[in-house]
Amino acid sequence: MSKRRVGGTTKANGLSIGRSKEDTNLLEALKLYESKNYKKSLKLVEASLKKNSQHTDSLALKALNLYCTDQKTEAETYVQRVLAKGSAGGPSPIGLHILGIYMRNEKRYSEAAKFFQTSLDNGSNNKQIYRDLATLYAQEHDYKNLLKARQAYWEDFMGYRANWTSLAIAHDLNGQPQESANVLTKFEELAKGKLGEAELYEHNECLMYKNDLLFRAAGDDHDKLQRVFKHLDEIEQDVFDKYAWLERRAALYMKMNDKQNASKVYRTLIKRNPDNFRYYRLLEIALEVQGDEKRRSILYSNLERFYPRAEPPKFIPLTYLKNEAEYAQKLSAYLLPQIERGVPATFNNVKPLYKKDTDRTSRLAEKIILDFLADLDQTKSPLTYVWANYYLCQHFMFLKDYTKARDYIDAALAHTPTMVELYILKGRVLKHAGLLVDAAETVNEGRELDLQDRFINTKTVKYYLRADMIEKAVEVVSIFTKNDGSVNGVMDLHLMEASWFVGELAESYYRLYLSNKQKLNDLKKTEVLTEEEAQIERSNQIRLLTYETSKFGGLALKRWTAIAKFFKQFKDDQLDFHSYCMRKGVPRAYLEMYQWGKSVFTLPMYVRATKGAAKLYFGLHDAMKLSNEIENEEESSSAAKKGGKKAKKDAAALKKRVDEDKKSSLAYEKDEDILGEKLISTTKPLQDFFDKFYANYAKEATDVTKDYVLEFEYQLRCGKLPLCVGALSKFADIYGEKNSTVGAMVLSVLEKVKYDSEIDEMTKKLALKGLERQFPSLPLDQLNVEAFEWLAYFQETFETPKLDALLLLRHSVSQIVGIDAIKQLILENLGSQEPIVQDSVLKYELN
Amino acid sequence: MSKSPVNLDNIYANNVGTFRKITNTVLPVNYPEKFFNEQFDDKYKGTFFGQLGYFGEVAVGGIRAELLANKNGGVKPAGVYVQVLAVLEAYRGKGIGSKLLKYVEEQCKTHFQHKLFVHVAVDNKEGLEWYKGHGFEVEGDELKDYYKDTTGSPDAYVLVKQT
């Protein structure tokens, strides 16, 4: 984070004229702070405080200096002392500014904004604060105040284009595109004829941005659209982004219902970039041929002649052709040249067609490739033979015929064992067949062909992690990382925010956590033998497994938390761009980033980490609940405590092991909880989950993107049944009321209503009311009838249960429907799942 | 476009795995790990000539030869000895082997050597024909039990080509 100057504060500024000694010293100390002489600055402030320990501004600066010299806890105590003073005798405008900077460094942006604002309100005439204030409001998405701050700053510094652009954007964000455009126009008038070569790019971006604004402001008003058109024509010479210019032109024609001219522009765009699928689709709309197969086909056969090397004209007809013979012919004309050229992505190119019409596409494609392979002269084109086999392997993998997929990839490998793609594909086949270790070894074999290839290196790492061979994975990944200061690349990959690696690592740790926990439970259940030696051995084993379980669980949480930190960092990193993008004059790119920044915590990797962490935290919560009910049977046989020499030796061995584990899992410098022991030993798992993961997600997820199952499971454990019912009805709106997951949710709520004594009656009633409204036919009157078969009801009322629904039942229902009955249903369902799913459910869910 | 798809390139420490793969796939003899790494040892700098042969972008063949300097009247005759020459079966007859051999012959010239040796297993008919077609002649009797760790015949002929 850049430490911006407390610019200009040193000039006369809100301080009384008869300055005290402390105030003079403060200004001196501020100068030192600004030149990053934190230690000297600190000394000076401390000298002041010795004389007058109540000088608040000095206290504030002391805090800031302490913060900058890495004494954050002490800094916070001084800040608290300042804040305790209240308004009387509180900090001067300078002090408030200092506190604002402190808060910004602490990433408490709204508080920072508050201090900056108060500093200005209390008479600071340091106008620079407005700029910092504006960036803070921008970061907090507080548009109203953003506009005010931008305006204030602009009024004082009109000589910079950046300030005009910033003001325009602030207007725009407040839903005032016309005002925004006016600001830009005013600047253009002022700058007319004075722009140098270096400013032309910025100028072009601002012009195009203005056109965006006008276009948005125009709506469907024909006259206004005409004016936008005129503006677009005027700026043509000055705009560098020709694609945007042409796209806007076409959009304008479309809006004014001049489709013929629009189609001409789209043709121009296609000419410029014949590989952009979007332009073809838009051209179809402009030509109004979408529903007309015949005219579409004429269009595309013409386009194909014009652009013989372009992909879309060949592919798009495959998405609508109905006649099978014609389709087969086109498919063949699409596939075979790619196979002959050796395009590795051939299968992926047609995968959408497989998904759309699995039967027709797979049937025809299979015949096309098999016939082609039968006629192929292998000696003449050996590589084509390999690619055809490669394709067929993927084809059968898509159809889940893993035996055949394996035959084809083996044939290709026997033919050309030096192609790395083949190893990756074989690894994938093995993975789907549930052979994770073999898969990893296979990909590693491919990696050994060329150690320089980072792609295969990372693939290998991922496969090793999937097989839970963490040591091997870390060893391989460390080939490419910076390893100074650490025994392996784990720390570097955290620094590089490599969430793919950290996420896979977390999931692997989680699996090891589950299997060790299982082993531990099994061992605890075994009978305690009478011989002393056996007892010692047993308690030793237990101690070791306890350690391993907690270590793996702790590390899983540690890694997932690291991912949450990466995303928090993405969010914070935006702060500098609120002023940087203005200076660079890229309003369009800025706004794009700004919109993206609104939903950072709903990006797939964050969601994946959140869901992973949810599983572990929910598990902890459920176990805690269970152990409250059953008396905690802590067993410690007398022999375990004695044991003498051997026990000492074992303890030493364990300690050595812990040290080694710490060394190899170190992720941050100066970390105090390397193995995540603090994380895993939490007593408030739900709260932790909310604070570290879920709060951010829930804030940013919209009604459409939200994962209602996760929301449901979380609220269920919080005992907030009405919120569960809310999530459940939202889910039902999207997936239908008969969806089996909906059924599982209903049963989960009923179970809580009936058996959870910690939830109060009022909440239960509310939940039942909600359920009644959503499902009028739900036999709630049967809730107190013991003989009622809820499972039968579930099976009759809802669709055939999907695996997800059954697993949800397994996690949240145990009495209203018996555990064994659910288990049985899961086992039946597994028959239709692919091996890898079967394995993981059997191993991690049914124990 | 009319460029030949066959190309040669050096063997590097990073992609020696490719060379190993080709060798172990084509030849019945099992070479130890050490064999493949010694060519990157500075101690032997300049005594090994290795190349990979590519068809298109894919490595499908390889050669490695050793320069035998006859120092102080050693037992081995001076010359260049081809340790490995292998091309994947599906890619034979495309001139890859010839190109690899030509590379080593050029190395002979630059190092002022006139003799190129090779051992060929007696049951490797295809190999024998190929070498004879490329100007090699059998020298002396067959060596009994020359190959130790092999799934093919342990006996070998010595072939020589004067360059």
From TrEMBL, chain A:
Keywords: Repeat, TPR repeat. The keyword DNA damage does not apply. It comes from the Eukaryota. Pfam families: NatA_aux_su. The keyword Repeat applies. SUPFAM superfamilies: TPR-like. Gene3D superfamilies: 1.25.40.1010, 1.25.40.1040. One of its GO terms (cellular component) is NatA complex. This is LAME_0F05754g1_1. It comes from Lachancea meyersii CBS 8951.
Automatic annotation (TrEMBL), chain B:
PROSITE patterns: GNAT. One of its GO terms (cellular component) is NatA complex. Coiled coil: none annotated. GO terms for molecular function: acyltransferase activity, transferring groups other than amino-acyl groups. Residues 1-163 form the N-acetyltransferase domain. GO terms for biological process: mitotic sister chromatid cohesion. This is LAME_0H02300g1_1.
